[in-house]
Structures are given as C-alpha cells and as structure tokens.
C-alpha cells in the first residue's frame, strides 16, 4: 500500500500584524482518504474593541462560505484580549475537488451579557480563508496548515446598493409544541432591473448550526413585481434549537432557468439588523405573531 504523505505548512508566530483589531491563530488538517477537514481555533491575540466598558469576552463563529451559515462556534473566554481556545471541529464529506470551492469564515465576536438588547453581534473582526490554499496534492495525503492571520473589519454594504424590494414576514415560535411558524405575506417593489418579466416565488430554508433541516417554497405569482402570498409554513424546532436557527428566504424568478436568486433575507441566528431584531422580538413574546418588513439584499451582502 502506498504510504500516506503529510504536507505541513506553518506561518511564523512572530509574524507582524497591522490591522489594529487583533489576530487569530488557527490550524487546518485535511484527510483526503476520509474526506474530513479538521478546523482548530487555537487562540486570539491583541483583540481590540472601541467600547470596552464590559471588557473583551471573545468567541469565534465558524462559517462555511458560500453557504454563509454559522457551522460551529467556540466557547466564550471571559475578559481576555488574548484568549486561548484550543477547540477543534470536523467537517465531513469534502472530496479534494469539492473542498477547493469553499472558504472558511472566522468571525470573532465580543459577547455581552445583555446581548439580546443590542440586536446585533458586536463583531471585532473576521477572516475569510480560501480552502484552495490547502494545495491538496494529487496523491492521497494529509495536508496540515497552521497560521496567524490579521482580523479585518466586517465588509460593509455598498454605499448605494440597488433597491431589490422588500418582503413582509411574520414569525411566531411556540416553545411548548416546538413549532416555528413563518408567514410570508407579500413582496413590494421587486427590482425591474433584476427581472424584466417576473414570476416570483420564495424559497424558504431552515438551518440549525449550519445544517439545513427543512425547506419549502411559496406559490409562483405570475407577471408581478408586487406579489401577495399570505402563506404559512410550520417548522419543527425545539426550544434548545431555536437560539441556533436561521431562516433564509431566497427570492427567485420562475421564468429564469434554474431559478437564479433575485435576493435574500436572513432571519435568526446568522442575521443582522431587522432580521435579528424581529427574531429577538419573537423570542421575547412566545406564541405571538411578530410581523416586519425586510429589505431584500444581494446574496453577497445579506
């Protein structure tokens, strides 16, 4: 049997950092035979936040792009700008060909005890690492990489984004029966630039810890930029799962081949702004229907 080879890449721990937000040390180990990627968050260093009244209590959220949903997160390290984690997570089912298509996102977040009142993560900085950099050889081998990387500011939306329209959604969580009710009411002002002739519908996907648990579609509405749906969807979600749940609403045009996305709305764990605000309102008022309008964003900005 051919001997399995190891390829090891290390970056000097004393490498200078210039972002001012701090840096993160992580390790990756890919086993081509098992098609497994092990991700280890080792430690963070020199973390900086502008408003430091409650101290720096960091943890790391790990997402797999382009899915964009949080896959795992580390524990919280209290009151430390130089946090040591040493936590490992495993992703399975990635062939050498497939793994090159993805990126890992490391988002370092400052935890606040009264976080739910903020309606958004207090993000210190993030890193996007292309898995194509693992340089997997053609023979069966294990590739290991350890790296210090500067944190970068979270990418902001363009100053003048295209108006893609809005979606009105109602949320209701019933913890005793373990049901999440998502009611898609209507869309207003779909972009004429995005679709000259539009037969819009919405694809709903429910994720927990980055794993899709359920999906559904609304009906297709013909030749309209302002469709009315009033459709209710029931998802089975336990009280333990709800805090790690994300609902993605992707607007698509039935007339286009393969139903390309016209934009996206995220609600829940991985959302920001209005999506997270509505989610917290739902959790604070069990069994009540909370309705809100959300701007449709391009997939890369949602």
Automatic annotation (TrEMBL):
<feature type="domain" description="C2">
    <location>
        <begin position="20"/>
        <end position="145"/>
    </location>
</feature>
<dbReference type="InterPro" id="IPR035892">
    <property type="entry name" value="C2_domain_sf"/>
</dbReference>
<dbReference type="GO" id="GO:0070382">
    <property type="term" value="C:exocytic vesicle"/>
</dbReference>
<dbReference type="GO" id="GO:0005544">
    <property type="term" value="F:calcium-dependent phospholipid binding"/>
</dbReference>
<dbReference type="InterPro" id="IPR000008">
    <property type="entry name" value="C2_dom"/>
</dbReference>
<dbReference type="Pfam" id="PF00168">
    <property type="entry name" value="C2"/>
</dbReference>
<dbReference type="GO" id="GO:0000149">
    <property type="term" value="F:SNARE binding"/>
</dbReference>
<dbReference type="GO" id="GO:0017158">
    <property type="term" value="P:regulation of calcium ion-dependent exocytosis"/>
</dbReference>
<dbReference type="GO" id="GO:0005886">
    <property type="term" value="C:plasma membrane"/>
</dbReference>
<protein>
    <recommendedName>
        <fullName>C2 domain-containing protein</fullName>
    </recommendedName>
</protein>
<dbReference type="GO" id="GO:0061891">
    <property type="term" value="F:calcium ion sensor activity"/>
</dbReference>
<dbReference type="GO" id="GO:0016192">
    <property type="term" value="P:vesicle-mediated transport"/>
</dbReference>
<feature type="domain" description="C2">
    <location>
        <begin position="163"/>
        <end position="294"/>
    </location>
</feature>
């Amino acid at each position: 049997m051919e001997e399995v080879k190891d390829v090891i890449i290390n970056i000097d721990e004393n490498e200078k950092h210039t972002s001012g937000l701090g840096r993160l040390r992580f390790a990756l180990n890919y086993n081509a035979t098992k098609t497994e990627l092990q991700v280890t968050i080792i430690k963070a260093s020199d973390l900086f936040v502008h408003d430091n009244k409650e101290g720096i209590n960091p943890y790391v959220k790990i997402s797999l792009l382009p899915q964009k949903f949080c896959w795992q997160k580390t524990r919280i390290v209290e009151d430390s700008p130089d946090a040591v984690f040493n936590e490992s997570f495993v992703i399975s089912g990635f062939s050498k060909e497939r793994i090159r298509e993805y990126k890992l996102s490391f988002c370092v977040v400052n935890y606040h005890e009264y976080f739910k009142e903020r309606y958004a993560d207090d993000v210190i900085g993030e890193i996007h690492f292309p898995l194509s950099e693992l340089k997997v050889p053609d023979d069966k081998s294990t590739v290991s990489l350890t790296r210090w990387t500067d944190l970068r500011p979270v990418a902001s939306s363009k100053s003048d984004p295209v108006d893609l329209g809005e979606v009105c959604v109602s949320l209701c969580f019933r913890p005793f029966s373990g049901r999440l009710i998502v009611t898609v009411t209507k869309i207003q002002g779909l972009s004429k630039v995005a679709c000259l002739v539009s037969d819009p519908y919405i694809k709903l996907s429910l994720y927990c810890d980055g794993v899709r648990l359920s999906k559904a579609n609304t009906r297709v509405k013909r030749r309209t930029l302002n469709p009315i749906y009033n459709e209710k969807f029931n998802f089975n979600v336990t009280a333990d799962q709800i805090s790690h749940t994300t609902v993605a609403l992707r607007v698509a045009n039935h007339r286009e081949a393969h139903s390309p996305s016209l934009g996206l709305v995220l609600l829940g764990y991985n959302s920001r702004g209005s999506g997270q605000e509505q989610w917290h309102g739902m959790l604070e008022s069990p069994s009540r229907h909370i309705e809100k309008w959300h701007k449709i964003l391009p997939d890369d900005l949602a």
